[in-house]
UniProtKB/TrEMBL annotation, chain A:
One of its GO terms (biological process) is amino acid transport. It comes from the Bacteria. One of its GO terms (cellular component) is plasma membrane. Signal peptide: none annotated. Keywords: Amino-acid transport, ATP-binding, Cell membrane, Membrane, Nucleotide-binding, Translocase, Transport. This is Cell division ATP-binding protein FtsE. One of its GO terms (molecular function) is ATP binding. It holds the Pfam family ABC_tran.
From TrEMBL, chain B:
This is DL-methionine transporter permease subunit. One of its GO terms (biological process) is D-methionine transmembrane transport. Keywords: Cell membrane, Membrane, Transmembrane, Transmembrane helix, Transport. Gene3D superfamilies: MetI-like (1.10.3720.10).
């Protein structure tokens, strides 16, 4: 099994990647440092072009760093020879947004491919291939071709294939971005199970905060080739610091204002205030609103909100409207009860 | 058509098949690796060798731009060197092969370039060597396209083989010219044309059937 969970399976140290281009170089990564903890699921979230795809490909040497150092499972990838890289890649599985399955091989043939490449295919690995196909729930479809499978089934084949050489690290390149929401949930659940049961370290990149919320223990937020914020998923959701992080969070945690309010909102003004209250941990289930009314006599109306579970802990968001003059008293009361607040503006 | 022409037609058919099969086989043996190399050796590709790629591309284009009948005559000394003679069915295989190989190389190149680049990336991520990527990913995935391309090449060779009568190549085309045209025997001409149509049709159908059997890109196996 894996070493202590505090140990890093992958470390990036001051890693830069530049592409030569006419009139100077374009930086895809700018002095990125990140530790990916062994046995955990780490998500890197960013918009397209933020550099997250390049970051992922540095781990198995599909891209080479221009500067800095990348270590995977204690081995220096940046200095590895071609032979050393190929050996390392057997310990690092990878799944892809568009699955990248061989159209002219069956499910079984696709899952067996990494073993053939490693030169270990034989009767004993046939059994492993069968077990992996069962593990991802495709036992009945082992002799079908990819064209006969749905998107979710194809990604399951991709996952089984990535696990064939019994890797210690799994890289996921937008693995659910081409799937519908229901299938996405099923594939994420499978990844979570694999992480738990096999102790596999998973590094995934995504542009969807929902993916981070649903399975990641740690998250790094990228923008323009840099990591702007990193930490435990729960902390990032409960207390985002960077504007980029906040913009990713809006929309996944019931924080989107209804349009008729959003259109009329102004930063200052004297109209009713719009306040966002963030609940974390135990406070998520406190009857805060009713107490605001009962103890302070403040009438707050609910505009939106949600309570969900992140990394096994409850987490909630509530957007309320209240008279502007009541705002200071309400905030003082909420802060006294360990709730975070943010004034979004006033309805003018 | 008199009965004594039947053996002549039969012999000419066999000669045509002989020329086409042998030049097609040798052309594939030469053209397949050449096509694989052309498809994988541009800058930044698997076997990155841009200078060699450009040079070989030039040779292929040069060979393909020479009209076949001129190629047949122009390489007579080379043909004599290889086949020991410059006249006859075996000698005709030399220019046919020389025309087929670059054609097949381009067909193989095109078919391999059709393979999704994501598959190459996936294979690299599995730790595959360039040789393994070619043998386990590129060739198997491109195979249906290669088979269709080879079908096209063989049909072209059947057409070219009619021109090698110029160097005593014999075969169906030569028979059609000598009997049908020069001796004015339209029934022989007609028989030659019919046999050629049947040959081409048979090759085309067989090629398409094999390609369909090999191709699993579309979900066509209904009722599973």
């Amino acid at each position: 099994m894996n070493s202590a969970p505090s140990q890093a399976a992958i470390t990036f140290r001051e890693v830069s990647k530049t592409w030569p281009q006419r009139g100077g170089a374009v930086a895809a990564l700018d002095r990125v440092s990140l530790d990916v903890q062994a046995g955990g699921i780490t998500g890197v979230i960013g918009r397209s072009g933020a550099g997250k795809s390049t970051l992922l490909r540095l781990v198995n040497g599909l891209e080479r760093a221009s500067a800095g150092r990348v270590e995977v499972l204690g081995r220096d990838v940046t200095a590895a020879s071609g032979r050393e890289l190929r050996a390392l890649r057997r310990d690092v599985g990878m799944i892809f947004q568009h699955f990248n399955l061989l159209a002219n091989r069956t499910v079984r043939g696709n899952v067996a491919l990494p073993l053939e490449i490693a030169g270990v295919a034989g009767p004993e690995t046939d059994r492993r291939v069968g077990r992996l196909i069962d593990l991802v729930g495709l036992g009945a479809l082992a002799d079908r071709y990819p064209a006969q499978l749905s998107g979710g089934q194809k990604q399951r084949v991709g996952i089984a294939r990535a696990l064939a050489t019994e890797p210690k690290v799994l890289l996921s390149d937008e693995a659910t971005s081409a799937l519908d929401p229901e299938t996405t949930q099923a594939v994420l659940a499978l990844l979570r199970d694999i992480n738990r049961e096999l102790g596999l370290t998973i590094l995934l990149i995504t542009h969807e905060m929902a993916v981070v919320r649903d399975i990641c223990h740690h998250v790094a937020v990228m923008e323009a080739g840099r990591i702007v914020e990193t930490g435990e998923t729960y902390d990032i959701f409960a207390n985002p610091q960077d504007p980029v992080t906040r913009s990713f969070l809006s929309g996944v945690t019931g924080t989107v204002l209804p349009g008729f309010i959003a259109r009329r909102i102004t930063p200052d003004g004297t109209g009713p205030a719009i306040l966002r209250i963030t609940f974390a941990g135990d406070s998520a289930t406190h009857p805060v609103l009713s107490r605001l009314g009962a103890e302070l006599g403040i009438d707050a109306s609910i505009l939106g909100g949600a309570i969900e579970e992140i990394d096994g802990r409850p987490f909630g968001n509530l957007t309320v409207q209240m008279p502007a003059e009541a705002l200071p008293r309400a905030q003082a009361y909420l802060h006294a009860h360990d709730l975070r607040t943010e004034v979004l503006g006033h309805v003018g | 058509m008199s009965a004594n022409l039947i053996p002549i037609l039969w012999e000419a058919t066999l000669q045509t098949i002989y020329m086409v099969v042998v030049s097609g086989l040798i052309g594939t043996v030469l053209g397949l690796p050449l096509g694989v190399f052309l498809a994988t050796s541009k800058r930044g590709e698997l076997l990155s060798a841009p200078a060699v790629n450009a040079a070989l591309g030039l040779v292929v284009n040069a060979l393909r731009s020479i009209p076949f009948i001129i190629l047949v005559v122009a390489i007579i000394p080379f043909t004599r060197m290889i086949a020991g003679t410059s006249i006859g069915t075996t000698a005709a295989i030399v220019p046919l092969t020389l025309a087929a190989a670059p054609f097949i190389a381009r067909i193989v190149e095109t078919a391999i370039r059709e393979v999704d680049g994501g598959l190459i990336e996936a294979a690299r991520a599995m730790g595959a060597t360039p040789g393994q990527i070619i043998s386990k990913v590129l060739l198997p995935e491109a195979l249906p396209g290669i088979v269709l391309g080879l079908t096209l090449a063989i049909v072209s060779l059947i057409g070219y083989s009619a021109m090698v009568g110029a160097v005593g190549g014999e075969g169906l085309g030569d028979l059609g010219i000598r009997y049908g045209y020069q001796r004015f025997m339209p029934d022989v001409m007609l028989a030659v044309v019919v046999i050629l149509i049947v040959l081409v049709q048979a090759v085309q159908s067989l090629g398409e059937w094999i390609a369909r059997r090999l191709d699993h890109r579309a979900a066509k196996d209904r009722g599973l």
